[in-house]
Design a protein that fits this description.
Distance between the termini: 27 Å
Number of strands: 7
Largest sheet: 5 strands, antiparallel
Radius of gyration: 15 Å
Order of helices and strands: EHEEEEHEEH
Strand order of the largest sheet: 2-5-1-7-6
Number of helices: 3
Low-confidence stretches: 96-121
Structural class: alpha+beta
Oligomer: single chain
Strand content: 15-25%
Helix content: 10-25%
Length: 140
């Protein structure tokens, strides 16, 4: 799934309650290992936090430990953990997904568009099928 070129130190946490404080997030994931950075993306229109975060660890080991379970309960919400993907990879997956690509510009191109885990995160690890029939799948 992840490219094995460089060590994976960054994870995507989707489905997180936007009310969860950075302290709570740091407290929970800090148990796996030392955290280098936490990104809390904001919705520029609503000026509110989005339902996902990115966590960068100092080492690769904690990421492996976190990923042993796909779901974690953080601050009362069940979150899905994935390896964070580089912006380029993520944006490639957005093409051909029914005219939904440009909702993500200016959002560092990561996470699953709106709710942090809508469509878009479903094709992690699956190669995008390049056929003309994608447009009939509209989850919204």
């Amino acid at each position: 799934m992840a490219m094995k070129k460089d060590p994976v130190k960054k994870i995507f946490v989707g489905g997180l309650n936007p009310e969860a404080t950075e302290e709570k997030i740091r407290e929970y994931f800090g148990e796996f290992g030392e955290i280098e950075a936490i990104e809390l993306p904001m919705d520029p229109k609503l000026n509110k936090r989005r339902g996902f975060v990115f966590i960068t660890f100092k080492e690769e080991e904690p990421v492996k430990k976190v990923l042993e379970k796909k779901f974690h309960t953080v601050s009362g919400s069940k979150c899905e953990i994935k390896v964070a993907q580089p912006k380029e990879v993520y944006q490639q997956q957005q093409y051909g997904s029914g005219g939904r690509g440009n909702r993500n510009r200016g959002n560092r191109g990561s996470g699953g568009g709106g709710g942090g885990g809508g469509q878009g995160s479903t094709n992690y690890g699956k190669s995008q099928r390049r056929g003309g029939h994608q447009n009939n799948y509209k989850p919204y």
